[in-house]
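subagent[fold] <- orchestrator: predict structure for attached chain, return C-alpha cells only, no commentary.
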Amino acid sequence: MDANIKTAKEGQLLMKRFDCLIIGTGAANTVLDAALAKGLRCAVIEKGNFGGTCLNRGCIPTKVLATAADYIREIEDLPKIGVDVGRASMNWDVVSRRVWEKIEDHVSVFRYYQSQPNLTIYRGRGFFTGEKIVRVELDGGVLSEELTADKIIINVGARTSLPPVAGREEAGYLCSETLFGDKYPAKPYKKLIIIGGGPIGCEFSHIFSAAGTEVTIVQHNDRLLPRSDREVSAQLLKNMNALGIKVFLKHNILSVRKEKEEKILTIESDGSGAAFEISAEEIMFATGIRPAGDELGLEHTTIATDAKGWIKTNELLETSVSGVWAIGDINGQPAFRHKANYEADIVAHNLFGGFDSKNWRWASYEVVPAVTFAYPQVAQVGLTEEEAREIGCDLAIGKQHYHKTAKGYALGFTAEGGMDGFVKLIVEKESNRILGVHVIGAQASLLIQPFINLMNVGTKKIKAINPEIGSETAKALREAGIERTLDPHSVLSVGETMTPHPSLAEVIMWTQYYFEGK
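subagent[fold] -> orchestrator:
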C-alpha cells in the first residue's frame, strides 16, 4: 500500500485528488498505462488479484484446461486417418500446475504497478460516497480518506448469477469464482452436474468430460448456446451426445440436497410436473452473470443503471455523470475480454491520445465476435438467421460442411462421424452484405477472423448509444455526424477490430502496437 495513505477519522475526512482514478483492474489497465505515460497522477483500486476476471478465473485458466481437453479428443480421433496411438488421458496434476502458474501472473502485474512513481495503489473495495467521491474499505475494514479525480474509470466486472434453488447453500456447489479458488479439485470429479448450457457450461462440460468425468448438463432453455444460430446449437448437441455428455433441455431445478458423498438434484421437465432425481459428486452453476456494481455505492451518485443493475454508457463509454466512464462487463454490453479491451482502447485513445475530438473513436457493438471453446469450437459474429429474418431482411444463406472439403476429408471428418462442423454465412441478398457468420468445428476461432475484419472495415458514422447520456463533446460529435474510415489495407485497422480472446488470431492482432502512432 502507498506509504502516504492515511486513515480518515469520521468527521475529519481528508480529500485526495488525482488526475485519473481506476476502480478495478483488468482491461482498464490499458487506460491506466496511457494516463501514466502522460505523467498524470493516478490511483487504482483493486479488492482482488490484479488482472481482472479473465486472468484469475475466466478465459485464460479455462482455456488452459480446454486446450488439454481438445488434444485428448483429437488423439481419440487419429485412428480414423490411419494414425494409431495409445489411449490419451489428462494428467490433472500437470494441467492444474499450468493453470495456477498462469493465474500467478497477477503477482507480476501487481509488482509492475507498484514500481510506477505516479501511481497510488489501494487494495480493497472501492465505493462511492458522493457524485465523484470514492472511499476504499481497506484490509481489516479500515476506511481510506475520500478520493476524487478528474477522470474516474469503473471496471469492476460481473460475477455468477445464482438462481434461487432450495438446499443449494446447505449442499454446497461450484461456480467459476470458487472453482478457481478454494474449491479447485485435486483430481477430476467422478460425476459432475453442470447447471446451464451457455458458453461457460458447454466449455466446462468439454473439459471435465475429456478428463474422464461423467458429465450431465441441465439446461432451462430449449437448446444449448441460446444466443447462437439454431443450426449450430443442434450440431453442438449432436456432438456432445457423441462424446457421452448427457443433456437435459427444457428442465427446471427444484432443489438440491447432499447425501453422504453425493449431491442429489431434483429436476422436472418444463411444464410436465413430473419430478425426478439425478446425482453427482459435485454440482456446478454456470447460469449467467450479474453486475458486480452492487458494492459500488451507486445510490450515492446519479450514475444511471438499467433494470438489471448494469451501468448505462454511451458510445464514448461515458456514464450519466460527467467525468466517469464504465468499461467491461459492468456496462452490460457483451461480456467478453476482447470487447473490454476494445472499450479500453477507445477511452485511452480519446482521453490520453492527444487527438482532437473530431478524431476520437466510439464504440459500436454490431461486430462483436464470440467463441465458445467447447468440442468442437463454436464461433460467431453478427446476426443469426433468426435475428436477420425478424428484422425483415431478404436473405441468402451459404453453408458448407467440413467433410465436403479436401482438408476436411484429410482431417477425417465425415457426415456420420458426429464431430463434423460447418460454416454458415448469412447475407443480405440484394447487396451481398455479410450480416452474420457462424462456425462450428475445428479451429472455428481462427476461421471466423477474416469475416470479423471484413465486417468491421469501411466508413462508419457515429451512432448514439443511450442518447440521453452525453457530455457536451459527445453531443457535438453526434451533431457533426463524424465518420471514421478503417482502411482494409492499413495495419492500424487491425487494432480497431476485435479478435476473440484467447485465440491464436491474437498473435496477428497484437502486432498493431509496433505501428501505433506512426
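orchestrator: received. Logging for downstream: The two ends are 38 Å apart (CA to CA). The first strand starts at residue 15 and ends at 23.
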